[in-house]
Structures are given as C-alpha cells and as structure tokens.
Amino acid sequence: MAEHGKTAQANIGVVGLAVMGSNLARNLASREGNTVAVYNRSPERTDTLMEEHGDAGFIASKTIEEFVDSLSKPRTAIIMVQAGKGTDAVISQLADLFEEGDIIVDGGNANFHDTIRREHDLKEKKLNFVGTGISGGEEGALKGPSIMPGGSAEAWETLGPILKSIAAVAEGEPCVTHIGTDGAGHFVKMIHNGIEYADMQLIAESYDLLRRVGGHEPAAIAKVFEEWNKGELESYLIEITAEVLKQVDEKTGKPLVDLIVDQAGSKGTGVWTVQNSVGLGVPVGGIAEAVFARAVSSKPDQRAAVQKTLKNRPEIQDPGENFEDDVQKALYASKMVAYAQGFDAIIAGAKEYGWSIDKGAVAKIWRGGCIIRAQFLNRIVDAYENDSTIATLLEDEYFAKAVADGEDAWRRIVAKAALSGIPVPGFSSALAYYDSLASERLPAALIQGQRDFFGAHTYKRTDSDKVFHTLWSGDRSEIETEPSTH
Ligand code: 6PG
After folding, report:
1. Which of 129, 223, 261, 404 is the most buried (most CB within 10 A)?
2. Separation between Cα atoms, residue 311 and residue 313, nearest integer Å
3. Is 189 marked active-site?
4. What is the DSSP code string of 386-446?
C-alpha cells in the first residue's frame, strides 16, 4: 500500500510530537525491532525531532495519509496529543484511513468514560482502540514509563511486545500489563494520579510540620527526606522532594520553595478520581483532601480575607521528643490509608465496568517508571498474593502492623498540628478513616434515625433482618415496613 509514496515498514507510529510524544517516539526507536513512523499536525515539531534526533531512524510524514501508508499491518499508532477534542480529531482522521484490525492507541491522560465511548465507536468500524495510561512524565516517556493499557486482547497481542520494549523495568519485569478491556487502562491511570495527589499532599504536610513545628529550614528538611528515602518510605516522590527543598534561588539566595507561589495547580485527574470514586460509593478521603487542599490553596481572596479577620492564631506547639520520627510514622500510616482507598476504588471500578483487574499486577507495574514508584508497592503485591479477596489492604498483616506501629505517633502529630493551627487534612482524614473502620459502633445509627424522622427513609435494627420505620409524627410506635425507595 504505497499510494502516497511510502513503503509500509514501520511497526509503530506516533502522532503528536510535543515533548511526551517526541520522547516516546525516541524511546520506541531506541529499542531493537521497532521502526517508528512519526507525524505532527504542524510540521515544525516533526522538523525539530528530525533535526535533533533524525539519526534514530524515524520515518517522518508531512500528511496523515503518508503516515498511515508508512505503517505495516496491523497498523498501530499511538496518539500523544492533548486529551479531549484534540484526541477525537486525530482518532477520526486515523479511523478514516485505518482498516479492519488496525490499532489506535491513546496515550494521553484521557477520561476513561471517553475511552469507553471511543472504543465502542471504533469497534463498530472493526478497529481496535486502546486507551493507555502512561506515567513517568517526560523522562519516563524517554527512558521507560509505567504503562497501563486497556483495550481488547487482540490489540494486546500486537501492542504488548512493543509496549514491553519501552516500559520501565522493575525487578526484572517490564512495568506494563494488559489492565482490562476498553477504559480499564485509563481508569487505573486515573487512580494512580489520585494516589499521586494523596502522596504529594502527605509529603507536603510533613514538610510543613517539620518547618513550622520542628523549626527546620528547607535544606535541613531535605536531609530528613533523604534519610527517610533510605527506609520504608523510599520512593520517587520523597526523592524529588529533597531535591526541590535543596534548591536555592540564584537571584536571592533564598530557598526556591520560599519564592514559589503557594497555590497548587491541577489538570483534572485528581478531581476525576474523587468524582468517580464517590459515584462508586468508595470513600477516598485521603485523595479528596489532597484535591481540596490544592483548591483551598488556590483561593487567594478567601485566604487573605480570613487572615485579615482572624488575628489570634494559636501558638505553635513545642515539638517535644522524637518529633521527626513521629512525622515519619504519621506519614507512613497515612500513606497506607491512601493506597488502601485507591485500591478500593480499583476494585469498585472493575466491578462496575466489568473489568477483570489483577490488583497485584497493577501494584507490580507501579514499582518502576511512574510517579508513585516505590519499593513499598511490593507489599501490595504480597498482600494480594497472600489473599486476593481481602476486604481492605489494611487487613493485610504488613499494612495492619505498619498502621498499628505508627498509631500513637499519628495521633500525637494530628493533635499537635490542630493545636498549632497547622492544616493537615491528609493526615487527619486518614486517621479519621482508620478510626471509622476500627470503631465497633458508628454514629451512622443516629443518622439513620434522623433520616427516618424527616423522610421516612427506614432503618434496620441490630436484632432483626427486617426493615423498620418509627411513626415520628404519630404515636412514635415502630412498624415493620419495606425499604424506602424515595
Ligand atoms: C504521571 C503524572 C502525569 C501528570 C499529571 C499531573 O503519571 O506521569 O501523573 O500524568 O504529571 O497530569 O497532574 P496535575 O497537573 O493534575 O498535578
């Protein structure tokens, strides 16, 4: 097929050559067995890639038709453009030119609902659509990301070896696995990002406490994080935190962190995690608080107004003994909770959307390449290997012990933060979640009573399987009834 003058010789193509796309294309080209076709809507990016890295042997095209002609069958193209309308436009162009059995891969941070829709639409044209989460940022794309593909088993047969060739490697295994059908890959990537938000928030709270209660400067706190990175908290995010805290501003000689505006941005995947988890009935408080904390930080007017009104702030508490150790333990315990909540959301999503997701395999591919990569992921692998039916990760022996060992420190830290007026929404919501699960009785009983009072929503009794309603506005006798449907 060479109507447009190209020989079909590339086994993989990349559309969209901004940094992520270029780096992924370079990664692909650097691996044995791959010949990579590249295309970008505006030719400048293609020219830049060819000027700077043309020796990698790319087959560059000026038109989408040429690009398609340069791909061998089954044609496989990875789209690396901005999520949303841009993706739909490229999909539609490729779908017009691709033939039965060809594979369109979306490697952006797409909303998994869009991925389900796109897969469904393209299936009607007998095309394979694979929504793929790719984590690791620019460097990961170039050197080896963690890859979370969804889509059909048929597409995985062709795509699997290609993705394995470029993925990060952790303990000898490539950080890629077929997550499940249609939107499963983007769903799991979304949860990855939700956990990433929680992890970052917990680290940020630790820094704030070490600074404001501990009285340490950023450079000293960097050293604390470097130390922590040698133990069970070892992770990419802890590592880069130390790097950021060490950075000194050239102009002023001050720690850079003191010059960065304290308003955290976001691109949406954290919000999606919360929206979808709440819709699935999964309490992901740790992730939600991380999303809210970014939102609060980005409300300068409200912050200024409250700061003006509230003059008497509480006094910062004395750190007391072992403060650093306490923060470390509180961080680890809260992190356990965040991961437990994230995996709960994966389990609920799999059930709702009919995906068969291997939770241990997900933990394995997060050990390398991605933003939340950490040694600790092995503990999740072990937990599900021991018993894949556990009700929560917190039930697993390792997790239960980690949380129990940190419990006293966790409580001291949350109390000290509250008394000092330092916000620790991540730590405190994780502790509240843990205490909720650990409480034999919850005040939810009273909420059921209130609901029955104002809305006849009914309740169950502890001593019966039946459903009841109290005639609150009548003689307050109790009747057996049907569950409320309103
Ligand atoms: C990754 C990152 C990546 C990106 C997020 C950050 O896994 O490589 O999660 O996807 O950095 O989009 O999102 P925010 O801008 O929302 O923090």
Report:
1. 129
2. 6
3. yes
4. H-TT-S-GGGSHHHHHHHHHHHHHHHHHHHHHHHHT---HHHHHHHHHHHHHH-SS-THHH
**Structure confidence by residue, pLDDT tens digits, 131-153:** 999 999 999 999 999 999 999 99
User: Which ligand 1 atom is nearest residue 189's CA?
Assistant: 7
Ligand 1 closest atom vs CA 136: 8
Q: Looking at residue 308, what is its pLDDT?
A: 94
What three-state secondary structure class fits 135?
strand
pLDDT of residue 484: 80
Q: Which two tokens stand for residue 149?
A: 């593909």
Which listed residue (196, 289, 335, 359) is catalytic?
196
CB of 269 closer than 6 A to ligand 1?
Answer: yes
Q: Say if CB 316 and CB 213 are below 8 A apart.
A: yes
Tell me what pLDDT residue 5 has: 59
Substitution candidate for ligand 1 out of 138, 267, 272, 366 with most atoms within 8 A of CB: 267
- Spans in the chain with pLDDT lower than 50: 1-3
Dmax (CA) for the chain in angstroms is 88
Find out whether 184 and 352 touch, Cβ atoms under 8 Å: no
Q: Whose C-alpha lies nearest to ligand 1, atom 4?
A: 137
User: What is the pLDDT at residue 1?
Assistant: 41
- Cβ neighbours of residue 280 under 8 Å, at least 6 residues apart? 345, 348, 349, 352
Question: In this structure, what are the phi and psi dihedrals at residue 148, rounded to the nearest 5 degrees?
Answer: -125, 80
Q: Which residue has the tokens 């805290």?
A: 245
Q: Which of 19, 23, 109 to mutate to test the pocket of ligand 1 (most atoms within 8 A of CB)?
A: 109
Q: Is 432 exposed, middle or buried (0-12, 13-18, 19+ CB in 10 A)?
A: middle
Give pLDDT, residue 4: 54
Closest CA to 91 of 161, 16, 186: 16
pTM (predicted TM-score): 0.96
User: 107 CB under 6 A from ligand 1?
Assistant: no
